[in-house]
Each structure stands twice: as C-alpha cells, then as structure tokens.
Structure prediction request, 414 residues.
Amino acid sequence: MDERIEQSGEEDRAEAPDPVTPLAGATEPANRVAPADGPRTDDERMPPETAAVPRAEADQAKLPDVSPSELAETSDPVPAARPDAIPMPTASVRVRVDDFHFPALLNGLDFLSSAVESLARLGGPAPRDLKYAVLHLYTAVEVLLKVRLEMHDPTLVWEKPGQYDEAKHRAGAFRSCGAEYAIKRLKKHELLKTDLDPKSEELVALEELRNRLTHFGWTDTTDAVRARTLPVLLQLMTFLRLDLLPQVADTNEAWRAEREMDKINIQTQHLAEFVAHRKAEIADKLRGHEAMTVPCRSCGQHAIVLPEGPAADLICHFCGKSYPGSGVDAAWEYIGEDPHTTIKDGGEDFAGCSACGERAVVSVHTAASPDTLSYLCFGCGTDHEGVCDYCQNAGYITYTGMCDECYDIRLSRF
Ligand SMILES: [Zn+2]
Ligand SMILES: [Zn+2]
Ligand SMILES: [Zn+2]
Prediction:
C-alpha cells in the first residue's frame, strides 16, 4: 500500500493503475485517441471554440495568456481528442465566464454529436469517418462522465485523487480516470440515477473496438460499428438526461446543451432505425435456427447460424464478418486468437466434441437462451450439456462434473 492510498482512504483510489505522467509533457500516449493522420474534411471539423479547447488545454503551461484571436489562428481543426482529461476552458471562454465546467460539457457533447452524425449518415460513413466516430464516441463517454464527477468533486476526476493539485488541475497537467473508474466513483458517491455498469458488455465492446481501430487497423464493417455503438449511445443519452443536464446550474450553458441534445437525439433515432432495419432484413435467415445462432464477435448481434453438419466459412448475417475455414478455424477466429500462439503459450485448446471429435466446442449464449451458457460445437453444431472436468471433452456431464465415460472408468476402479 502506498502513501497515496493512506492519504485518500478510499478503496477506489487504491484501484487506480500506475504513476501519474503529466499530460503537458505529452509523453504518455497510452490512453489517448490517435491524432488524425491527415487533413479532415470540413464537415468533420469542430466549431472553432470547441476545436480550440484541446489545444488550449495542452498548451496551458506554455501559453497561459494566449489571446482569443491567436487561439483561433493556431487552433487545430482536428478534434484533437484527449479522453484522459477534462478539457480546460479556452482563453476566450476564461475571460467571459468563471466556470470550469462550461467547455467540458459542451466539448463532450460536441464529440458525441460528431460521432452520431457520422454514424447516422445516409448510406453509411466512409471507413475513415467510422473510425473517428468510434474514437469520438468513446471520448464523449469519458469526458461526459467526468463532467459529472468534476461537478461533485474535482479530485475524483484524477486517476489518483490523493495527488490532486488545483494548479495542475487547471493546467490540465494530470492523468484522469477512465470510464470504468468514473462510473465506479459516480456510483460510490450516489450520483447516478442511470443504471450504468462499469464493466457493461456494451462499454467493454466499445473499448475493444476503439483499441482494435487504434492499434490494429480497420476490420469491422459499418453495420457492425453501428450495432456496437448504439447501445452505448442510448445509455449515454439516458445519463445526460437523468444525471448530468439537470445538474447544470448556468442557464445559458443548460440551454446550449439542450439544443445540442435535440440534434443528437434526432441522429440517434436515425441510427436506431438503421440497426432495426438491418435486423428486419435478416430475420428470415435466422428464424427457426435460434438454438444454433450465436452472437458475432464483431457486431455483437445474434446472427451467426451454425450448420447442422460440417461447418465451412461461417458468416455473420448482420454485418458480413466472415469466419473462414473449418469449424475449428471459425472457433479460433471467433475468440480472436491464433491456436498456435495460444497453445504454445500454455493456453487451453477448445473442448472436444462428442459427436464429430473436433476440438471446436465454444461456450456461448445462443439466441434461444441468451442468459445461459451453451456448449456448441462450431464443427458440427452439436449442443452439449457441459465439459468434463477430467477429459476436457464436451458431452453429458454427471453430478460429479465428469462425463459418462470418465465416470464409468472411475467406478470400474473401485
Ligand atoms: Zn456481425
Ligand atoms: Zn462437433
Ligand atoms: Zn470425461
């Protein structure tokens, strides 16, 4: 236990990861949204005021007295997303209002607006726009959660609240907590009416998607990203309505936020319609196969139908993600791992199937029983009751945790 924990006396502070790196030094890119790698199109640009925020924030230490006109000239057209800190007011805002929350809220809404506009665009966004939509949505989630924390107690925005320093806070020279810790802290301090789960499947999936895009390049389709982002978007809208906007004391700020929300609401409805329409389009292909239908790794929709018999080149009907090759290949693709690397590193193989003998039994939630685990063979579609603790084969499992065969062998020894 380090001294910081003793200072703070709160266990959520103890959970925070490693040492603080001042943001002003710009040496820790780990949790940042990747900067744009080229000029953006006009419709992607943020309004000058909000576009200036992240730059102003990063430059606080160097340019404390930058004038509004200089700021406008030097402002980066890219919504230079930095999800790990509440953006500081621009110089122009600081001279007009003495309210730290003002730009952070509107800046968060601006990221949200940018994301949803792109996602709801007719015909679908271009792959590059889609990538920024995901990055911006994730940034919006983090910023807006932290705006509520900030209103309650600015120290809670810090990754390590015990190290809070007002001057550094105002300069943006600190590392702030991520979405998971922000939700934990909001719950702990009873600031949430919205039912947010720090480890919600939707939020984790969005984070994984963001990481895939940031570190491994583009692999998911427009439909997949729309389906993945919609649940998070809906949760965030509820949070804004119930927990954040009612707390905004400044009437001008509240009015601007409401106006922005109206626009975001309309776009969110369009997005929900796209997803509902796509679901309706594929409904016939899925009907009657619910017990053999598993959720797609890419879009999260129950839309991969396992065949009754040898599987080859499985595909997600919703987003088109392919799981090429045999059932065994598909099973590994499904969990996003390479069998050679995993097994070489001491990881486990899949359980063997009692029907076809392939090691391709995956524990999944089917469309027929989304709340209980099924043990489905990706090779032949056989549904098993469980996996034997002793032989690691799937099949009928007795009360001992063993399959029939292992149970018989064991009995015969007595
Ligand atoms: Zn899919
Ligand atoms: Zn099988
Ligand atoms: Zn067994």
Remarks:
- The chain has two domains: 3-279, 290-412.
- Residues 353, 355-356, 358, 377, 379-380, 382 surround zinc ion (ligand 2) (CB under 6 Å).
- Residues 3-279 form one domain.
- Confidence is low (pLDDT under 50) at residues 1-102.
